[in-house]
Write a structure and sequence with these properties.
Distance between the termini: 122 Å
Strand content: 25-35%
Number of helices: 5
Largest sheet: 5 strands, antiparallel
Oligomer: single chain
Structural class: alpha+beta
Number of strands: 7
């Protein structure tokens, strides 16, 4: 009788040990599987596949912080090109200014209103004047938000009788906003002011 009880006790302990080992093993396998799946998801999220010429090319997504200086400089360059590249075509000028104002706050709108009230744009159209801007350099401080910037460039103003080169120095700040079709970089130019805009050379045509 004691032997039977001992056998039952031994069998119970064996079953208990087996159950504990099974639960521990199952938990470890489940944890390992979950970790592997999460790691795989993170890896997949960092990859993009682009179809080009019938071939799937792998691209890698990067944190926006890695691209802030590049995107910020391109935003500033694009804004200045839209604002200052003008031609003797009223619709073209209005389209450019509209695009520029999507990239900036009321400081750019105020500058535009001042130029419009002084007949600057109507004089460009009536005088058959073309205006193009080139970028010399863009300095930007991304260590603190909003990001301070200073733009250095030159304007080439072509009139029927002459070509004038004018320097252009502006400064302002960049604030992060949501990306959109009208603002692909997700920045907004704020407190924009012109520091210098003087004639450098004038040549007859």
């Amino acid at each position: 009788m004691f032997r039977k009880a001992k056998n039952i006790d031994t069998a119970f302990r064996g079953m208990r040990n087996f159950t504990i080992a099974f639960v521990v093993g199952y938990t470890l396998c489940g944890g390992l599987l979950m970790y592997t799946c999460l790691d795989m998801v993170r890896t997949i999220q960092g990859k993009i596949y682009v179809l080009a010429n019938g071939k799937a090319l792998e691209a890698y997504a990067s944190d926006r912080r890695d691209n802030i200086p590049v995107e910020a400089r391109d935003h500033i360059k694009t804004f200045h090109q839209y604002f200052f590249n003008l031609s003797p075509d009223e619709k073209y000028n209005q389209s450019n200014i509209k695009r520029a104002l999507y990239l900036a706050d009321e400081s750019a709108k105020q500058a535009y209103d001042n130029l419009r009230e002084s007949n600057y744009y109507s004089n460009i159209v009536s005088g058959n004047v073309s205006q193009a801007i080139t970028v010399d350099s863009i300095l930007i401080n991304t260590n603190a938000t909003p990001y301070y910037f200073r733009f250095y460039g030159k304007q080439e103003i072509t009139r029927p009788s002459s070509v004038t080169i004018r320097n252009l120095v502006t400064e302002g700040q960049l604030r992060n906003v949501n990306r959109s079709d009208n603002n692909a970089h997700g920045f907004l130019v704020e407190k924009w002011v012109t520091l210098s805009n003087e004639d450098l050379t004038t040549k007859p045509r």
